[in-house]
Amino acid sequence: MAGRVYSGPVTTRSSSSAPPPGSADGTSSSAEASGLAVGAGAYAIWGVLPLYMAATAPASAMEIVIMRIGFSLLFCLLLLAVLRRFGDLRAALGTRRRVVGVVLAAVAVAVNWLLYAGSVTSGHVLQASLGYFINPLVNVALGVLLLGERMRRAQWAAVAIAAVAVLVITVDAGQVPWIGLGLAFSFGLYGLAKKRAGAPVHPVASMTAETVVLLPVFVGGTIGLAATGTLTTGLHGAAHFWIMAASGVVTAVPLIMFATAARTVPLSVLGILQYIAPIGQFLLAVTVFGEHMPAGRWIGFGLIWLALIVFTADHLAAARAQRRLTRRA
């Protein structure tokens, strides 16, 4: 998936805040409703992304990622030209701290893309779903481990339940769900790198900067695939080429939709919307890709969902408390 923004640096208008001067409550509510629809649409696209990945066959997971880098860069450059925002690209790489952040984010997102593509091409869409279900909990854990943040009791309980769930899934499958855990942690580290890079820039410029950093991977990877006879893009007909080329659009469009939603939708609401994606992946894994769901796996996923209920309830309660403090202030 790898397009969503870590919740830390996103600034959204609280649902309790007053509308800006010169606007009416109705206008503000309409903007929030539109943002809600756009945000839900972004997560819905990420939820059905396995269908696109499956359509790229016979391309390997490595080729999917390599082509995604190249076509995403091309699409983002076109968008920057249309939007006339090349200045934002310079800002994204304007300081040493930003460059380090972009490099770390690019590496993390490339690993995330590879794991995600590998999960679909190897028939492990359920693990992709698992990874994005537990990602919010991993974000909290990384905040504690790397940023010195403190977790509330309910958050500790949610993380503990999720840990038990992973243990149950591991025992049932006879192996650790490395793909799911890798997706959760790589995307968590991606968000962390974005957060530490400083004030956020335009999402298209940010993504362009990351793909610029990954350009050597695209060039070297394409040469390597061609040399080993495993390159399919351009060699399996026009339809396959355009499916691969669509990776740029598939990558950038939901990101832009999310960024649009983040301007008007409260962060607490976005935190709930994010579950649309793994729910969609889970349903596709079971109904379309026919992945087996033994009793142990159902129990494991049930515990994950319980952890998320606890986590979300605590998150909403904390958001309400913060709004009350804001009103009193």
From TrEMBL:
<keyword id="KW-0813">Transport</keyword>
<feature type="transmembrane region" description="Helical">
    <location>
        <begin position="239"/>
        <end position="260"/>
    </location>
</feature>
<feature type="transmembrane region" description="Helical">
    <location>
        <begin position="65"/>
        <end position="87"/>
    </location>
</feature>
<feature type="region of interest" description="Disordered">
    <location>
        <begin position="1"/>
        <end position="29"/>
    </location>
</feature>
<feature type="transmembrane region" description="Helical">
    <location>
        <begin position="205"/>
        <end position="227"/>
    </location>
</feature>
<feature type="transmembrane region" description="Helical">
    <location>
        <begin position="177"/>
        <end position="193"/>
    </location>
</feature>
<feature type="transmembrane region" description="Helical">
    <location>
        <begin position="33"/>
        <end position="53"/>
    </location>
</feature>
<keyword id="KW-0812">Transmembrane</keyword>
<dbReference type="InterPro" id="IPR000620">
    <property type="entry name" value="EamA_dom"/>
</dbReference>
<keyword id="KW-0472">Membrane</keyword>
<feature type="transmembrane region" description="Helical">
    <location>
        <begin position="295"/>
        <end position="318"/>
    </location>
</feature>
<protein>
    <submittedName>
        <fullName>EamA family transporter RarD</fullName>
    </submittedName>
</protein>
<feature type="transmembrane region" description="Helical">
    <location>
        <begin position="154"/>
        <end position="171"/>
    </location>
</feature>
<keyword id="KW-1133">Transmembrane helix</keyword>
<comment type="similarity">
    <text>Belongs to the EamA transporter family.</text>
</comment>
<feature type="transmembrane region" description="Helical">
    <location>
        <begin position="99"/>
        <end position="118"/>
    </location>
</feature>
<feature type="transmembrane region" description="Helical">
    <location>
        <begin position="267"/>
        <end position="289"/>
    </location>
</feature>
<dbReference type="InterPro" id="IPR004626">
    <property type="entry name" value="RarD"/>
</dbReference>
<feature type="compositionally biased region" description="Low complexity">
    <location>
        <begin position="11"/>
        <end position="29"/>
    </location>
</feature>
<feature type="transmembrane region" description="Helical">
    <location>
        <begin position="130"/>
        <end position="147"/>
    </location>
</feature>
<dbReference type="InterPro" id="IPR037185">
    <property type="entry name" value="EmrE-like"/>
</dbReference>
<dbReference type="Pfam" id="PF00892">
    <property type="entry name" value="EamA"/>
</dbReference>
<keyword id="KW-1003">Cell membrane</keyword>
<feature type="domain" description="EamA">
    <location>
        <begin position="34"/>
        <end position="170"/>
    </location>
</feature>
